[in-house]
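Input.
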Amino acid sequence: MATGQIFSKTTQALFYNYKQLPIQRMLDFDFLCGRETPSVAGIINPGSDGFQKLFFGQEEIAIPVHPTIEAACNAHPTADVFINFASFRSAAASSMSALKQPTLRVVAIIAEGVPESDAKQLISYARANNKVIIGPATVGGVQAGAFKIGDTAGTIDNIIQCKLYRPGSVGFVSKSGGMSNELYNTIARVTDGIYEGIAIGGDVFPGSTLSDHILRFNNIPQVKMMVVLGELGGSDEYSLVEALKQGKVQKPVVAWVSGTCARLFKSEVQFGHAGAKSGGELESAQSKNQALRDAGAVVPTSFEALESVIKETFEKLVEEGNIPPVPEVTPPPIPEDLNTAIKSGKVRAPTHIISTISDDRVTARAGKDLVSSLVSGLLTIGPRFGGAIDDAARYFKDAYDRGLMPYEFVEGMKKKGIRVPGIGHRIKSRDNRDKRVQLLQKYAHAHFPSVKYMEYAVQVETYTLSKANNLVMNVDGAIGSLFLDLLSGSGMFSKQEIDEIIEIGYLNGLFVLARSIGLIGHTFDQKRLKQPLYRHPWEDVLYTK
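Output.
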């Protein structure tokens, strides 16, 4: 692997499995570093395409969304980093697909718990094809002033405090993402800061090792010293010991292996990471620290002494003239999001509609009559609004009747690029359930002769909640599944009749009936309030190619 630098100020990445916060953090870091182009070239959401709106400094940009890895690579041939935010269930397959793309050079696997057999296959393929894997179970890595992966280094405030907006002289590698943040801060206090930092991940089989990155840092002229933070368990640190003994590393290495407290326990201890497990004597932190010390690394007597040892090593290099002064720069301020500013009381924003019922928008604002307003409102009902009741009933029934396990159903839908109707909510979550759903389920348990479809929908919800906190059953899913139970449990409808009722959109008719009453109310409300023509603010529209 050795070679040298893997990131630069022009590096661009493809982001797999859209997550708004880590992507926005990457873009904010780009702006902080003065990059001319965003580091995220495209987003891959299986089965989806279009755009996602995000901010690059003050400017709102639209990042393309692609349905497959192949499509994204074809559209963005210069993007050579793949950031994989897939769950541990699908991380291996998507990572292997990425490794096989000729344009992708580095694959970062964020998920923890990737099966070890899968991890071994990924590592074998990557090494045979000169690719770099960071992870699994990693937060990623950062090249100061140039590029960072996902949530690496945390918040913008922490990044500024750690001086990661401009390059320093220290190469850092660790197994732990959380401890990386701690060490970035420590190193910034006593040196000129990080040049590049990598968290290889805490799983038993990391895609790249501590020594892989130390040998790489050794070939980067801007890196003048290295800091390594290992941990008990496994033998990764000993490959670094061998590299030091063989003279492959010519720059100072400050190292510490955490977990010395394990000896205080009478039995084997499992720490936070899968790989941080106290085994035999050679895997102990004490043995590793001594081996590193004997091989020539600068090893402190305790973790508390690590900061002073880093400082002494750095100051010695400065005195010898090996490290020129790094010019300080003032990073630009990151614009604050409107919602955050409103919540903190810093700004106030006007509303655009007055209503005494709710905040729904109706065409009465265009001066139309009742029937025109009602019809235009009804025309908005479709798969994304209201039609989910029929679809939820249709898909839940098909999956249950075919005997599909919930995970088979969900993963099958994902492969087809279809979101599970009746699952997911913009506001509600695992800890903030929809009261309407709870009341409907409680009523059904008390009065329905059978709730087999509802219970199946709940099992599906349990599985989807293991993926994301907001993938709860919504009221459409509850109504759809309960109508199936009502129809099948009443004994009045044959299977063919039930299938026909669902197919012709019968359930959606009930939604249309209820929505009509609401639309009529909104129409009269807007007329009574004598509201003028509504014009949507032009600055609220993002024009993109």
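The domain at 387-529 is CATH 1.10.230.10 (Cytochrome p450-Terp; domain 2).
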